[in-house]
Specification:
Blueprint (H helix, E strand, L loop, with lengths): L5 E6 L4 E6 L14 E6 L2 H12 L3 E8 L2 H12 L3 E8 L4 E9 L2 E9 L11 H4 L2 E7 L11 H10 L3 E5 L12 H5 L4 E2 L3 H8 L4 H9 L4 E5 L5 E5 L2 E5 L12 H14 L4 H15 L12 H13 L2
Parallel strand pairs: 1-4, 1-8, 2-6, 4-5, 8-9, 9-10, 10-11
Antiparallel strand pairs: 2-3, 6-7, 11-12, 12-13
Helix pairs in contact: 1-8, 6-7, 8-9, 9-10
Bound molecules: adenosine-5'-diphosphate and magnesium ion.
Length: about 325
């Protein structure tokens, strides 16, 4: 596999999730009790990197965290999954961010402090490290506000170095959906929005128009559609890829796991529909357990579970 050490380097954010289950709506000057809680790895980018590594790819991670317990926890979790964390910067002047999830299935409310992720800059990136990968993936474009204006340069340079590129912007919490993103899309091989993000990014009112517009901007468009599966557009073609039926426990990280599955097959040279089918299987697997990485504990377990899901097709 050339002289490349990594299949994928993920550039992204590192935050923890504290999930509280069955909580009434909070009110100022009162205390309410949750029925259960769980402390887990958060962050779309970190979940994609973790699950991609567990599936079997060689993955490196680049990002910024605080020199604190949350930062240590994120790095430890990635390392346990086999991710190379040597290029995660821990800065003692910063705080690793956190999301408090108030989960009352099927609804949840998120409260996030972004923390160190906003301080990653282009000059922090080690091009030697990036050039050791075949592929660059960037997650949570809108949350990495320090890096955001420089992402076109990052992707252009990655392409010059011979890497393929993918992007999952996730939701824009400011709901601006700036067309500045279109410059990044020029250098994006695989664009991985979900249904609602695709419509907003394209500034249109329905998915068909969004696919029409965004499909012309990138090489491969894979739109994630929750329990409806995925829709892919590439080379002037378009195809719906049906979902796999599983028992849904909790949906955090479904999209990030879809990314992992799609990229895994893409790097094996599979055709786009097959990449999306495997993405759907990984997304389906993700919703069968709590948290984004709960269903991805180790390679043997995951391969068996994926085989079952794929055969139940
Ligand atoms: N309830 C579900 N049943 C089966 N597959 C699902 C379910 N929810 C999500 N998925 C799979 O995970 C993928 C990503 O989920 P989605 O919710 O669309 O993304 P995101 O988490 O980014 O919003 C879907 O395209 C689908 O393949
Ligand atoms: Mg997502």
């Amino acid at each position: 596999m050339e002289n490349k050490v990594f299949d994928v380097v993920v550039v992204g954010e590192l935050n923890i999730d504290l999930v509280l289950w069955q909580v009434p709506m909070p009110e100022y000057e009162t205390e309410k009790l949750a029925e259960d809680m769980r402390f887990t790895m958060g962050s779309s980018s970190a979940i994609t990197a973790h699950n991609l590594s567990v599936i079997g790819a060689k993955v490196g991670f680049v990002g910024k965290a605080g020199k604190d317990i949350f930062g240590d926890f994120m790095i430890q979790q990635l390392q346990l999954a086999g991710v190379d964390t040597s290029h995660i910067i821990q800065d003692a002047s910063l705080k690793t961010g956190a999301t408090i999830v108030l989960a009352n299935p099927p609804q949840k409310a998120l409260l996030t402090y972004l923390g160190a992720m906003t301080e990653l800059r282009l000059e922090d990136l080690d091009w030697d490290f990036l050039s050791r990968a075949r592929h660059l993936h960037l997650g949570c474009y809108y949350l990495q506000t320090g890096l955001m204006p420089e992402v076109p340069r990052l992707f252009a340079r990655a392409k010059e170095l011979g890497l393929t590129t993918s992007l999952d912007t996730n939701w824009d919490p400011r709901e601006v959906w700036s067309e500045d993103l279109y410059e990044v899309l020029q250098y994006t091989d695989i664009f991985l929005p979900n249904n609602d993000e695709a419509i907003r990014i394209a500034h249109v009112s329905d998915l068909e128009s969004a696919v029409e517009k965004l499909g012309r901007m990138v090489k491969i468009l894979a739109v994630k559609r929750g329990a409806r599966g995925a829709l892919v557009a590439w080379d002037g073609k378009k195809k719906e890829i049906p979902p796999f039926r599983v028992e849904t426990i909790e949906t955090t990280g479904a999209g990030d796991s879809f990314n992992a599955g799609f990229l895994f097959k893409f790097l094996e040279g599979e055709a786009v529909p097959e990449c999306a089918r495997f993405g759907n299987a990984c997304g389906a697997l993700a919703v069968t357990a709590l948290g984004g990485t709960g269903a991805f504990p180790d390679t043997v377990t995951v391969r068996q579970a994926l085989q079952q899901i794929l055969q139940g097709d």
